[in-house]
Amino acid sequence: MEAIEAKDYQVVFGTDGYTNLNAILKEKNYSILFILVDSNTHEHCLAPFLQNVVTQTTIEIIEIDPGEEFKNLETCEGVWNVLSELNADRKSALINLGGGVVTDLGGFVACCFKRGIDFINIPTTLLSMVDASVGGKTGVDLGPLKNQIGIISNPELVLVDTHFLGTLSIEELRSGYAEMLKHGIISSEAYWNTVKEASYSDFESLGDLIRQSIAIKNEVVLEDPFEQNRRKSLNYGHTLGHAIESYFMESDQKQRLLHGEAIAIGMILANYLSTQLCDLEEVVCNEVSLAIMSFYQVVQFDDKDIEQIITLLKYDKKNSHGKVLFVLLNNIGEVVLNQEVSNELIYKAFEYYKNLNKN
After folding, report:
1. What sequence ranges are listed for the domain 3-dehydroquinate synthase N-terminal (predicted)?
2. Domain 4-167: which CATH number of 3.40.50.1970, 3.90.550.10, 3.40.50.2020, 3.40.50.300
3. What CATH number is given for 170-356 in this structure?
């Protein structure tokens, strides 16, 4: 599969990708290679990955706990301490083998250690392949608040090996698919029509769709690397989606939602808001929303839940001058940025989501 040219690095795929990886390791001649894994990728992904790595450089493995709740500065401190104890220097490199938590946190760890060492991302989940693989966003959460601490810095290489998808649960695959659905909504009706009819469990066809999703995101990032304008479109569904994800993570009474499950709800809410504030036709809103809903379980919200979710909106990274700004739509592939939304409309959007469940 043909490589994708990102900013100062490539996204490479499969067998050819390992050839690229080994060439970089030989060229860079790193002093030590550190591989960051969580306990899941240590068990399921590390051995097959190492079978494809050819290097004479010493390799050290660093393991962290799995899950979004460990994507924090405390985990970073632990990794920095291990790097120091194992004599990492500025000519060392960190290979991040895992999902979005590992690649986001690992990239941030690498950027800060000794003011920056090289890092390479090997995404092992569908979400990290289509979302974290391009764009250079690294970082960690601040309590339940998503990605509040971080920096934009590009890896030396991203290698996408779809064989790792076989290690995932259906729930994790479904979570990652939400980002692919989003890429369809914000990019083109053609890709939307393809991805909404596809199956996230059909790995044979999924490989081509993954590459298309990465290419869509890469085109946006190349135009606007620091999210001043067009790159904000990639946050479609994420303003309320991240708030919902944070609320369910923080609540003792709620079952946690995976990232894609929360973003799917956020996109449906954004669809409704787009009919009220932009030119999205109701028939298109309903068609897109029902298609999204066909992939995900229904979640119940009461007024107290919604009130707390709205409170969390003040932490959204797109906010400016005290205003919460949404990404909305005029049509599939026609995004409208920096839209203010009243709390009253947000309540109505949740009512739309609730009533859509009855159809």
Report:
1. 62-174
2. 3.40.50.1970
3. 1.20.1090.10
